[in-house]
Amino acid sequence: MKKSVSIILTALAIVLATSCSKSETYPDGGDLDMAEKNIRKSWKLTSYLRNGVNETNLVLITSYTESYDSQGVYTRSYIKEDQTQVAEDGVYSFTADLYELRISDVSSISGFSAANSTLSSSAYKILKLTETEFRYSFINGSDEHEFRFIVTPSMK
């Protein structure tokens, strides 16, 4: 009897622990005000994964940043391999469930890597969004691309 009670209590503790854990995407909860507050910054790309493999060292562009303002304006900039500076403004919005970011009015990222001469997506699946860290993924062609960012130091 004691063994049965012990097993039941252990199982209950595991269920409670996992059901109360915070989301990896939104560790502080998932409300729109928090998501908008956290995204309204300038973000510097720190790593890039293609199909789960870190390919940061294969990226040909440099100084890639994305910024999101309170008016829904999305800005991205980077330097191409030939040292040409690229800067574009578009529009962003969250989906109702806050797990996807919609981007419009920007072109493809050109000259991204040897494996991907261009990258584009109008929907980013948000993997993590905190005050200091932002990760998203998207499918382009048959590959899954993941971008990982930190807050640009001057924008903290």
Task: Put the structure in a nutshell.
By secondary structure, the protein is an alpha+beta fold.
Description:
This protein is of the alpha+beta class and 156 residues long. The protein has a single domain (24-155), classed as Lipocalin. The chain has two helices and eleven strands, in the order ααβββββββββββ. The chain has helices at residues 2-19, 32-39; strands spanning 42-50, 53-54, 62-68, 73-79, 85-94, 100-104, 109-110, 118-119, 123-129, 133-140, 143-151. The strands form two sheets. Strands 1-3-4-5-6-9-10-11 form an eight-stranded antiparallel beta barrel. Strands 7-8 form a two-stranded antiparallel ribbon. Strand 9 (123-129) and strand 10 (133-140) form a beta hairpin. The longest helix has 18 residues, at 2-19. It is globular, with a radius of gyration of 19 Å.
Provide the fold topology:
Blueprint: H1 2-19, H2 32-39, E1 42-50, E2 53-54, E3 62-68, E4 73-79, E5 85-94, E6 100-104, E7 109-110, E8 118-119, E9 123-129, E10 133-140, E11 143-151
Antiparallel strand pairs: 1-2, 1-3, 1-11, 3-4, 4-5, 5-6, 6-9, 7-8, 9-10, 10-11
Whole-number radius of gyration?
19 Å
- SS-based structural class? alpha+beta
Shape: globular
Q: What is the helix fraction of residues, given as a range?
A: 10-25%
Largest sheet: 8 strands, antiparallel, barrel
Order of helices and strands: HHEEEEEEEEEEE
Q: Class, according to the CATH hierarchy?
A: Mainly Beta
Strand order of the largest sheet: 1-3-4-5-6-9-10-11
**Helical stretch tally:** 2
Distance between the termini: 57 Å
Fold-level CATH name: Lipocalin
Low-confidence stretches: 7-22
Average pLDDT works out at: 85
- Percent strand equals 35-45%
Count of extended strands: 11
- The CATH level-2 architecture is identified as Beta Barrel
